[in-house]
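Lecture 7 notes: from sequence to structure.

We start with a single chain of 521 residues. Read the sequence below before looking at the structure.
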Amino acid sequence: MADAHVLVLEDDPMWQRDVSEVLQPIAASIHTAGALVEAESLLQTCYFNVAIVDWSLVLGNARDDQGAQFMQMLRTYDLTDTVRLIVLSAYPSNERMRASFREFKVVDFLEKRSFDADVLLQTALDALAQNHLDHDLEIEIEGDNGDLRRLWEDFTWARREPSEPLAAELYDLLRRVLPDATRLFIQKMQAGQSGAGVLRVQPYFDAQAGVPVVVKFGKKDKIRQEHTNFHQHIENFLGPYAGVQLTCELGRVLGVIRYQFIGAELPDVSDFARFYRRHAAEPIRHALDNLFSVTCARWYGNQEMPRQRRDLVEMYTEGLRIDWAEVWRGVQQLGIDPESAQLTFAGVAGALPNPKRWLAQRDNRLYFTVVRTVTHGDLNEHNILVTEDERTWLIDFYRTGWSHILRDAVVLETAIKFNLAENKDINVFHDLDAVLLRQTRLDHLRIPTGHAQSKVLTVLAHLRHLAANLNGVNHNMAEYNASLLLATLNLLRFDFMREHHPLALLSAAHLCQWLENGTQP
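Now the structure, written as tokens:
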């Protein structure tokens, strides 16, 4: 095993050499620093799981405490659970020992005058063991050779980081989130909009296969936020047969979450996208029933009352983290002037309102008297998992929190309309929108007999019916269509939705026209 990534903070070159030689058999990398500023620079660019720290960094100065300042620096950088500390000091004292264990949670405080190489080596192994890093883990990635760097090649944020430290960090986080596993077989899953990777992981414990799990990795702050959201809003309100347990571990740059499903086992669970494509409308309706009436029932039932007059633009901008500059840039990339008064579309008769101008004429505000509740926030086709008997589970709680009660329904509608209907013909889509915009009550959509898009219309009709059944929702279409407008415009800022941008803009223009005067396309 050679998995220790060690930082030696020591001003004496001889001690730097001796400590490095002792740890060489277990070290994948060793960096040395003779001053606090060097150590800080290394923390900003390298990954470490063990640090050997001299309390005094001034030769012969027993009062110097730069080692303690470094340990405090780890707390500032939020690395106290990632970098395990071992103090190696020529100036021990009871006060320093107490501070090391009480404040900085060091693994041990060793004295230079009684230095023992075997003791230091064992202490470093103990430090690794505290984070479940004291054993080898074999990793196999489907269709690859186990190179972890292939897992984040599509993420811009990850490409800004040096690949070797990032791979070492992810390797360690997988061991921490799946302690005692000796082998992992990893399959990449389709990710959502949060810029994180989602993996289907089969762990093995020696020769025995464990319970398959879903693992998500991404930027540390986002993973931490998701775990916090789950703890605050979801953990105590899980529906029956739809429970999920989260285990979270954080590193220097990355965070990892393990989802383990209660009452179901992978690979019996597939995402909603696959389930939708493999089934007719009726099983999909049953899955949506379970999603709204079981999985999310307790969240939606805990409502803020009474209804309050609120600005939907503000609520959706905050809830979906909409960057409006990126939205209008998406319009511009279609070759359309975002400032034009009206829009025209090839094959679609007449001119439609420009959503940017339409919103600006209303001071970018849309006021409705609405109910707030806890919503998932990113209810797309990849974050909903479904079993063959139509039960549902959810992953990705990064956007979970208090918001408009219709947020999940309209986000899911956009996923179905633009991603699952597989409709890229603007005239066919125009016809689909025409049927939806003729709806006058949220709980009742008339579908023309024999309509070519009857499956998607039947599913959307049922989704809207479920939304109408949520307590406090207005059954006229204005509140829903205004919310749908904002969720649809949000799609224009995502590059991976680029092929759907013309349809999304057309749909948004349709909704502006409907909200303005109630006319259908």
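The mean pLDDT is 91. Keep this in mind for problem set 3.
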